[in-house]
Design a protein that fits this description.
The longest helix has 18 residues. The protein folds into two domains: 203 residues, Glycogen Phosphorylase B (Rossmann fold, 3-Layer(aba) Sandwich); 155 residues, 3-Layer(aba) Sandwich (Rossmann fold), CATH 3.40.50.2000. Helix 2 runs parallel beside helix 3 and helix 7 runs parallel beside helix 8. The strands form two sheets. It has a seven-stranded parallel beta sheet, with helices on one face. With 376 residues, it is α/β, with parallel strands linked by helices. The relative contact order is 0.16. It contains 14 helices and 13 strands.
Length: 376
């Protein structure tokens, strides 16, 4: 997004809580150490941002993954304030709407009796502990700051409904799916000779890799694809190779991959699986796969079905037999070409230029074309 805004002639100052590469996106980035989502507000960071805004007078402030209420209130001192809603943390004390102690997820609005009951009865946040109350109060302070924004930018209609459920006026919620980095390919890499499924995501329970392993074990052995999984190792992932071996699934753990390496692994795969068990706000890896001409199979959670189109198949959450059937269907040589072509067509909806155009329509002020961007 940053190079796209620069190419559109927008003057920017960009801030991040922690800066590793000051000019990683071709735009200088300054450090502004606001608090993380589990820390008290940083008053000094808020004061500094307020002074920057007073001195520079930008047309808009755009925040992305900023969870410090004081900094968010400071950002309000502009003609236009836009807040990117990436995930559930703005409106969920637990942060992911998943129940920690059993399978399932929450659809309650934050601070309602149902939300509080889930915290006490189902162990959300810290369970029946004062820490849960402190976390809820911090989320409520953040919610008040978010509700003061001119627009909330949600990645999916699913997330738009979540914002509305939590008190945001519908006319102030904008549908802004994430863009795909780089150019969409004109054609896909050839289909690999041996069927191969790629998983890319965090190695945690709710991303569903274990469910995917069990689903692949249900594919007839003579048709069973190999499985490659990209992600940083976790304590939870240690047992997955043994499970795969026990079930007769060939599993390769690829570790964490950068963008180019991930693209290469997508190209080497027949399809990409998104077996998430939690309500995905969007599911970015899905459209990254589509941009490479690769079909996707997924559980129907959150906003996933919105971008799938005819480029793959969604099945009911947790139905491993249905997921196995979808993998077999999409892998079939006679159907794969059509799915691949549909994937490339779908990917054209997520260009950087289109994203920047929508963003400027929301944020442009008649007299100014300068922006402050705060992003984690």
């Amino acid at each position: 997004m940053l190079p796209g805004l620069a190419n559109a002639g927008v003057e920017m100052r960009v801030f991040a809580r922690r800066v590793v590469e000051p000019a990683a996106f071709g735009v200088p980035v300054e450090e502004l150490s606001w608090a993380k989502d589990d820390q008290p507000s940083n008053g000094a960071a808020a004061l500094r941002l307020r002074r920057i805004i007073e001195g520079w007078a930008p047309a808009a402030v755009i925040t992305s993954n900023v969870f410090d209420p004081a900094v968010m209130h400071a950002a309000r001192a502009v003609p236009n304030m836009l807040v990117r809603i990436h995930d559930h943390r703005m409106f969920c004390p637990q942060g992911d709407r998943s129940f920690p102690n059993f399978s399932g997820h929450c659809i309650a609005a934050m601070s309602t009796a149902r939300c509080l009951g889930n915290a006490v009865l189902h162990g959300c946040a810290a369970g029946p502990h004062p820490k849960t109350l402190r976390l809820l109060r911090a989320r409520q302070a953040l919610q008040r700051a978010v509700l003061a924004a001119d627009y909330l930018m949600a990645s999916s209609k699913f997330m738009m409904r979540l914002c509305a459920t939590n008190g945001v006026a519908p006319e102030r919620i904008a549908l802004m799916p994430p863009p795909i980095e780089g150019e969409v390919l004109a054609s896909a890499a050839p289909r690999p000779r041996r069927a191969r499924v790629l998983f890319a995501g965090r190695f945690v329970r709710d991303k569903g890799l274990e469910s995917l392993i069990r689903a692949l074990a249900l594919v007839p052995q003579n048709e069973r694809p190999v499985l490659a999984a990209a992600g940083a190792p976790t304590a939870e992932s240690v047992r997955w190779p043994a499970l795969a071996t026990k079930l007769g699934v060939s599993l390769s753990l690829l570790g964490h991959l950068d963008g180019r390496a991930l693209d290469a692994e997508i190209d080497a795969s027949t399809l990409v699986a998104v077996p998430s068990l939690w309500p995905e706000p969007f599911g970015l890896v899905g459209i990254e796969a589509q941009a490479r001409g690769r079909p996707v199979v997924a559980y129907d959670v959150g906003g996933v079905a919105e971008w799938m189109g005819e480029a793959g198949l969604v099945v009911p959450r947790g139905n491993e037999r249905a997921l196995a059937g979808a993998i077999s269907s999409v892998s079939d040589e006679r159907r794969w070409t059509a799915f691949s072509a549909a994937a490339l067509r779908q990917a054209t909806h997520y260009s950087v230029d289109a994203h920047v155009d929508r963003l400027l329509k929301l944020s442009r002020h008649p007299q100014k074309e300068s922006h402050i961007i705060c992003a984690s």
